[in-house]
Design a protein that fits this description.
Radius of gyration: 27 Å
CATH architecture of the largest domain: Alpha-Beta Complex
CATH superfamily of the largest domain: 2-enoyl-CoA Hydratase, Chain A, domain 1
Number of domains: 3
EC number: 4.2.1.17
Helix content: 40-55%
Keywords: Fatty acid metabolism, Lipid degradation, Lipid metabolism, Lyase, Multifunctional enzyme, NAD, Oxidoreductase
CATH topology of the largest domain: 2-enoyl-CoA Hydratase, Chain A, domain 1
Largest sheet: 8 strands, mixed
Low-confidence stretches: 1-9
InterPro entries: 3-OHacyl-CoA_DH_CS, 3-OHacyl-CoA_DH_NAD-bd, 3HC_DH_C, 6-PGluconate_DH-like_C_sf, ClpP/crotonase-like_dom_sf, Enoyl-CoA_hydra/iso, FA_oxidation_alpha_subunit, NAD(P)-bd_dom_sf
Structural class: alpha/beta
Number of strands: 18
Strand order of the largest sheet: 13-12-11-14-15-16-17-18
Organism: Pseudosulfitobacter pseudonitzschiae
Family: In the N-terminal section; belongs to the enoyl-CoA hydratase/isomerase family. In the central section; belongs to the 3-hydroxyacyl-CoA dehydrogenase family.
Length: 686
C-alpha cells in the first residue's frame, strides 16, 4: 500500500452539484473545499462577467464554510480556461469598460485575501484571464501538459485583470514582461522552472499534491528576491529601454501600441502594486479603443468563423499521403501529431527517411513530450509500396505540380481506394477541372490546399468543383478543423483564393526589381506596411520555381492582364537558384546574405500601393466570381494563409477603411499599365 491508498476518494466533477442559481461553477464543501469551473453550454471555459459574478458570491460562501483550504479547478477536460470572454468586452468602451474591469479586479482581490490557503489546479490551456484567476491563488499545481501564458498582445491588449501586477511580482519581472510582450506560452516544465507553478505532477498525483499544498508542504517561492532588484524606477527604466528596442524589431510602435503601453505601465508603476493595478485598468481601456485592438479582435472572430466551417464529423481515421516532399511530409507529420493514423508513400526511399526526420523536428518545436512524440511517430508509417491506398479514408496527393504526374497517380487509384474514401489534391497552381477527369470518382474528389510550412500556417483551402459532393466538402472541412487547421471553403479558380491574391504581390515585386529598385528597398517598404516579410523574401521562402508556376497559371487562366515575369527569373530557376531551399535565390543565403527584418522609416507610398492594392483588387475579383463566400472569408484566408498585416484587419477591411482604392488603382493603371485597372466588382463592394 502507498500514500495514494489513504487519499480521500473525490467524486467526478460532473457529479458535484451546481449551487442554486449558479450556471458556471460546481462547489464541493469539505475540509478541503473545491470549486470547479464548468462554464455552461460550452466545452471550453472562459472568464466572463458571469463567471466572475458567480465566483464573487461563492467566495463569500467559502468564507462562511471556513475550510482549511480551497481548491479551484476546471471540469473541462481540455483545459483550465482559454482566456477572457472576448464577446463580453469587445464592444465596451470608456466608463463601461472601466467598471467591468474594476469589478473583475475586486473579485480576484477577494480571492487573494481569503483567510485560508487557496490552490489552483491547472491543466491544458491556462491562458489570459484563466491564468489571472490562478495567479490570485496562493499556490498553483500544474498537471503535466499544462500551458500557461498571456496572449492578450495578439489582440492588441495586455492583461487587464491584475495579471501585469501579479506575474511581475511572482517571478523574475523581466521574464514576466517577456512572456506578456511576446504573448508566448510556457509549457509545463518551463512554467515550473519560472516559478509560475509551485508543483508539476501527473494527473494521478493531483490529489496528493493538493493535500501537500493544504498542509503547507509544497516548496513555495514567492519570487520576492528576484523582484527586489526591479523595485527601483532606475532599474526598471534601464530594462524598459532594452525592451522597447527589442519590441520595435518585431512590433513597431506605429502599428502595435500594446507592448509599449505595457512597458510604460511597468516602468512607471512597477514599484507600487496599488498604483499599477489602477494604471493597468486605464491602459487596457485606452488600448481597447485603438484601431489596432479592434482589428485584431476582429481577426479573432474571423478565426472563430473559419473553425465553424469545420463543424461535424469527418469519418477519417486513416490518411494516406502520396508524395514525401516538404509539403507531403509536413501534412503527414501534422496529421499524425493530431491523432490520425498516417501512411506516407513516395517513389523513392530517401524522401521517406527525410520525412521522418522532419516529423521529429516538428514535434520538438511543438513541445511534445517524449511519449507523445513517440506515439505520433508510431502513427506515421513510411509506405513505399503504397499499401495504405486501399485502407485510407482520405488519400491526399502532394505530388509535384505536373498535370501528367497527378493524372497518372489518380488513374492508378481506380479500383484500389475504399468505396467511401476521399481523394484530395494539394495542388496550388493547377485547376481541379483539369484534374477531375482522371480521378476514380469526381464526387469524392476535391482540393485540400495546405500552406507551407503546414505546422506553422493554420489555413487550409477546401476547394470545390462542379462535380464535388457536398458531403465530401463537409468531411474535408471537418478534417481540417479536426487537425487544428482553419478551413476556408473556396471554388475552383486560378490560384484558388489565397494564391490569386498573393500572386500580384509577388509578381509586382519582380517588376520593381526589373525597374532597378533594390530588393531591400522593396522588402522594407512591405515590412513598414505591416507584412510579416517582404515579397522578395517571401518569393525565396516559397521557392522561385513555385512562384513561376503560379505566375504562369494566373497569366494563362485569368481573363485580365497580369504582370510579366522577367526573363532572368526563369534563368535563375533553370540554374537551380530556387530560393532558400537551394541556398540561393533573390538573396544569396550561402554567402550569408540575409533579408532585412526592420521596416523602412519613411517608405514611398508608390511602392506600398503597387504591392498592396492589387491584392485588394484581386479580393474584389474573387468576390465577384464567387470564389469566396464573403469579404470576411477573404480577409480571414489572406491573414491566416499569408500573415497579411493582421492589425489592418485584412485586405477587404483595409479597402473599406481607406475608401480611395479604386481611384488609386486607376492612377496606377495610367502610370504602369492595364494590370492595375480596377475590377468591375468595386462598383458593388462596400
Amino acid at each position: 500500500m502507498g500514500v495514494m491508498d489513504f487519499l480521500p476518494v473525490r467524486p467526478a466533477p460532473q457529479d458535484i452539484p451546481r449551487p442554486q442559481g449558479v450556471a458556471h461553477w460546481r462547489y464541493a464543501k469539505g475540509d478541503i473545499a473545491q470549486l470547479w469551473l464548468d462554464c455552461a453550454d460550452t466545452g471550453t471555459n472562459v472568464i466572463s462577467e458571469g463567471v466572475l459574478r458567480e465566483l464573487d458570491s461563492l467566495l463569500d460562501q467559502t468564507k462562511v464554510d471556513n475550510p482549511r483550504a480551497l481548491v479551484i479547478r476546471s471540469a473541462k477536460p481540455g483545459g483550465f480556461a482559454a482566456g477572457a470572454d472576448i464577446d463580453g468586452f469587445a464592444d465596451l468602451r470608456g466608463d463601461d469598460a472601466v467598471q467591468m474591469l474594476e469589478q473583475g479586479h475586486a473579485v480576484l482581490d477577494k480571492l487573494a485575501a481569503l483567510p485560508f490557503t487557496t490552490i489552483a489546479v491547472v491543466h491544458g490551456n491556462t491562458l489570459g484571464g484563466g491564468l489571472e484567476l490562478a495567479l490570485a491563488c496562493d499556490q498553483r499545481i500544474g498537471v503535466e501538459g499544462v500551458k500557461v501564458g498571456f496572449p492578450e498582445v495578439q489582440l492588441g491588449l495586455h492583461p487587464g485583470l491584475g495579471g501585469t501586477v501579479r506575474l511581475t511580482r511572482l517571478i523574475d519581472p523581466v521574464a514576466a514582461m517577456q512572456m506578456m510582450l511576446t504573448g508566448s506560452s510556457a509549457h509545463d516544465r518551463k512554467a515550473r522552472k519560472l516559478g509560475i507553478l509551485d508543483a508539476l505532477v501527473p494527473e494521478r498525483h493531483v490529489e496528493a499534491a493538493i493535500c501537500a499544498a493544504a498542509a503547507g508542504k509544497l516548496d513555495h517561492d514567492t519570487g520576492g528576491l528576484r523582484a527586489t532588484a526591479m523595485r527601483t524606477r532606475a532599474a526598471r527604466a534601464l530594462a524598459a529601454t532594452r525592451m522597447r528596442a527589442e519590441a520595435e524589431k518585431k512590433a513597431p510602435n506605429q502599428h502595435y501600441p500594446a507592448p509599449y503601453a505595457l512597458i510604460n505601465l511597468w516602468e512607471d508603476h512597477g514599484g507600487d502594486r496599488t498604483e499599477m493595478q489602477k494604471a493597468e485598468i486605464a491602459s487596457f481601456v485606452e488600448l481597447l479603443d485603438s484601431a489596432t485592438a479592434q482589428n485584431l479582435i476582429r481577426v479573432f472572430f474571423l478565426r472563430r468563423k473559419l473553425k465553424s466551417e469545420g463543424k461535424g464529423t469527418d469519418g477519417i481515421d486513416h490518411v494516406h499521403v502520396i508524395g514525401a516532399g516538404a509539403m507531403g511530409a509536413e501534412i503527414a507529420a501534422w496529421s499524425a501529431m493530431q491523432g490520425k493514423r498516417v501512411t506516407l508513400e513516395d517513389v523513392a526511399l530517401d524522401p521517406l527517411g527525410k520525412a521522418v526526420k522532419r516529423a521529429v523536428g516538428v514535434y520538438d518545436r511543438k513541445h511534445l513530450s517524449g511519449i507523445d512524440a513517440r506515439d505520433a511517430l508510431d502513427r506515421m508509417m513510411p509506405d513505399p509500396d503504397g499499401l495504405g491506398r486501399a485502407r485510407a479514408d482520405l488519400v491526399i496527393e502532394a505530388a509535384p505540380e505536373k498535370l501528367e504526374i497527378k493524372e497518372k497517380i489518380y488513374t492508378s487509384l481506380g479500383g484500389v481506394m475504399k468505396p467511401n474514401a476521399i481523394l484530395a489534391s494539394n495542388t496550388s497552381s493547377l485547376k481541379l477541372a483539369d484534374l477531375v477527369g482522371a480521378t476514380p470518382d469526381a464526387g469524392r474528389f476535391a482540393g485540400l490546399h495546405f500552406f507551407n510550412p503546414v505546422s506553422q500556417m493554420p489555413l487550409v483551402e477546401v476547394v470545390s468543383h462542379e462535380g464535388a459532393e457536398a458531403r465530401t466538402l463537409d468531411r474535408l472541412a471537418a478534417f481540417a478543423e479536426g487537425i487544428d487547421r482553419l478551413p476556408v471553403r473556396v471554388t475552383d479558380y486560378p490560384g484558388f483564393l489565397v494564391n490569386r491574391i498573393l500572386g500580384p504581390y509577388l509578381m509586382e515585386a519582380m517588376v520593381m526589381l526589373e525597374e532597378g529598385k533594390t530588393k531591400e528597398e522593396i522588402d522594407r517598404a512591405a515590412l513598414a506596411f505591416g507584412m510579416p516579410m517582404g515579397p522578395v523574401t517571401l518569393a525565396d521562402q516559397v521557392g522561385l520555381d513555385i512562384c513561376l508556376e503560379v505566375a504562369q497559371s494566373l497569366r494563362e487562366n485569368l481573363d485580365r492582364p497580369m504582370a510579366e515575369t522577367p526573363g532572368w527569373l526563369s534563368e535563375m530557376v533553370d540554374k537551380g537558384h530556387m530560393g532558400r531551399k537551394s541556398g540561393r535565390g533573390l538573396y544569396d543565403y550561402d554567402k550569408g546574405e540575409t533579408p532585412p527584418d526592420t521596416p523602412a522609416d519613411d517608405p514611398p507610398d508608390s511602392i506600398i500601393d503597387r504591392l498592396i492594392l492589387p491584392m485588394c483588387d484581386a479580393g474584389v475579383e474573387c468576390l465577384r466570381k464567387g470564389v469566396a463566400q464573403d469579404a470576411d472569408s477573404v480577409d480571414a484566408a489572406v491573414i491566416f494563409g499569408t500573415g497579411w498585416a493582421p492589425f489592418r484587419g485584412g485586405p477587404m477591411h483595409y479597402a473599406k477603411v481607406r475608401r480611395d482604392v479604386p481611384r488609386r488603382l486607376e492612377a496606377l493603371a495610367a502610370e504602369h499599365g492595364a494590370r492595375f485597372t480596377p475590377d468591375p466588382g468595386w462598383a458593388s463592394f462596400g
